[in-house]
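Problem: given the chain below (249 residues), write out its structure.
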Amino acid sequence: MIYRYDGTYDGLLSVVFESYRLKVPATDIIAEHQFKQGLFESPIQVETNTEQAKRVRVGLEKKCGKQATTLIYRCFLSEQPRVENLIYHFVRTAMREPENVLHNYRDDTVLQLHQVNKQIGREVHRMHAFVRFQETKDGMLVALINPDFNVLPLSGQHFVARYPALEWLIYDTKRHYGWYYNKHKSKFITLDEKQHRHLADDLLTNEENDYQQLWQSYFKATNIPERRNMKLHLQHVPKRYWSFLVEKW
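Solution.
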């Protein structure tokens, strides 16, 4: 049976709950924005139910611990094709087996989830390193990002701890939402206008433009062409991030 849901994490856990309630295992789970109706397909549409989603989380934590729910949430944020099915089968296996399956790498589903989790971890680490804030005329620091995975929910608290006395916004231009912090509390926001790779110059302070030029000059001056190792450089700073790095403009 194919289950269709709204694309949210709680929506996916609601599908897990519903499959148990109906006693109809899922052969496929597809988000609404990705679903294409087939000639002989009649999917079950599952509405998001936060209480049912909570029951799934609590049940999994009792069986496998907090690490298990953290794992599936991080993997959900990867947005990998068919990751919903991996998570679904992991939960089914975890609830069925008498032992904790969290580190049973002989199970292909468990192994794949941990591999995805490693990819997520690398992307979060790169966000910590590659975020570049720019100061706007209203005194707010703004950084635009475009990560491969939806890692903003896993990265925001790092910047809250690092810049607790500043007002800032980190905005994901691919997914069109951001994490805003006002010196006291943080929240997710969306903007009416879609942001691209750079903020318009007229939004920035004169000092910000000067700092950017200074940083670019410093980066150029410290670069030694004879010692350039582009292969190694790309391993540490993949090219897909360059358009968001001031020193690469």
